[in-house]
Amino acid sequence: MKDEMILQVQNLHKSFGDHEVLKDINLDVHKGEVMSIIGASGSGKSTLLRNINLLEQPTGGDILFHEKSILSDDFDVTLYRAKVGMVFQSFNLFNNLNVLQNVMVGQTTVLKRDAAAAKTHAMELLERVGMAPYVNAKPDQLSGGQQQRVAIARAEAMDPEVLLFDEPTSALDPEMVDEVLNTMSSLAHTGLTMIIVTHEMQFARDVSDVVCFMNDGVLAETGTPEQIFEHPQEQRTQEFLKRYL
Ligand code: ADP
Ligand code: MG
User: Fold this and answer.
1) Contact between residue 148 and residue 139 where contact means Cβ atoms under 8 Å apart
2) Model pLDDT for residues 44-88, shown as the tens digit of each residue
3) Distance CA 24, CA 27 (A)
4) Residue pLDDT, tens place only, 21-39
5) Per-residue CA distances from 117 to 11, 107, 192, 220 (Å)
6) How far apart are CA 222 and CA 225, in angstroms?
7) Cβ of 43 less than 6 Å from ligand 1
8) Does residue 21's CB lie within 6 angstroms of at least one atom of ligand 1?
9) CB-count exposure of residue 15 (10 Å: 0-12, 13-18, 19+)
10) Which ligand is nearest to the CA of 43?
11) Beta carbon of 42 within 6 Å of any ligand 1 atom
């Protein structure tokens, strides 16, 4: 089913004042695809994800989810954010809630699941990310890697169709990076559609179907991992990779 289009970014522009941060971005994401977005700091990667998730309002162009504009007036943004979840660099867990509550709360409030069903689902997901022993812990009692695994379980708990990851390992101590990358690899193998902003080039090469290189607000080059990492066509892609590989 990889031909089914799930997200389409069309001629997307985003400016902050007179600073144009995204310049005519076009991107198709197919169901089940794992897409990595690489590029230097400040190139617009986070802004692109934040527009896709409507945390920022595009200043031009359109974004279609199942061929329907997410910018139309009657679009249900709350439900959309459940379907297109986001995992942040800084985890963004609810610090006043424990681990179990963090993974239940969206299910009960947004999806209107009853507490028992939400708990069962939460426990399954926490089990899968290895966080079931920590259900009663508060986020600040956990390591960064543990918090990020809870954040991934929380996003999964909404039965998302797409998960967006914004540098999910770059705030972690090095010894915790692998536990989060391994969790993401297993997710990728479930057939979930994922868009991952990352500086972990080996990971991007291993898990992605498509790699996009962003440079100064422009999607400079898109291809398979082999095309981007072994045979980059653009000089700016080659120069960027030289610094990372
Ligand atoms: P990346 O994630 O690739 O590092 P960002 O999307 O965070 O890049 O930022 C791209 C550019 O947009 C940067 O120059 C940044 O300063 C600017 N920018 C991002 N968010 C805002 C904002 N809310 N207001 C003003 N400028 C912003
Ligand atoms: Mg960023």
Assistant:
1) no
2) 999 999 999 999 999 999 999 999 999 999 999 999 999 999 999
3) 10
4) 999 999 999 999 999 999 9
5) 41, 9, 22, 45
6) 9
7) yes
8) yes
9) middle
10) 1
11) yes
- For residue 43, give the ligand 1 atom closest to its CA: 3
Is the model's pLDDT at 2 over the cut of 60?
no
Cα(206) to centroid(ligand 2), Å: 21
| Closest protein CA for atom 7 of ligand 1 | 46
Ligand 1 contact, 47 CB (< 6 A)? yes
* Bridge partner list, 219: 214
Residue 193's pLDDT band (cuts 50, 70, 90): very high
- Ligand 1 pocket, 16 CB below 6 A? yes
In which region does residue 5 sit, left (phi positive, over 0), alpha (psi from -120 to 50) or beta (all else)? beta
187 contacts 152 by C-beta, under 8 angstroms: yes
Q: Retrieve residue 211's tokens.
A: 């790699």
- Give distance in angstroms: CA of 86 to centre of ligand 1: 17
What is the rounded distance in angstroms from the CA atom of residue 77 to the CA atom of residue 65?
Answer: 11
Query: Does the model's pTM come out above 0.90?
Result: yes
Q: Is 45 in the pocket of ligand 1 (CB under 6 A)?
A: yes
Q: Which ligand has an atom closest to residue 16 CA?
A: 1
- Enumerate residues 6+ apart whose C-beta is below 8 A from 233: 221, 223, 227
Cα of 46 from ligand 1 centre, angstroms: 7
pLDDT tens digit string along 143-192? 999 999 999 999 999 999 999 999 999 999 999 999 999 999 999 999 99
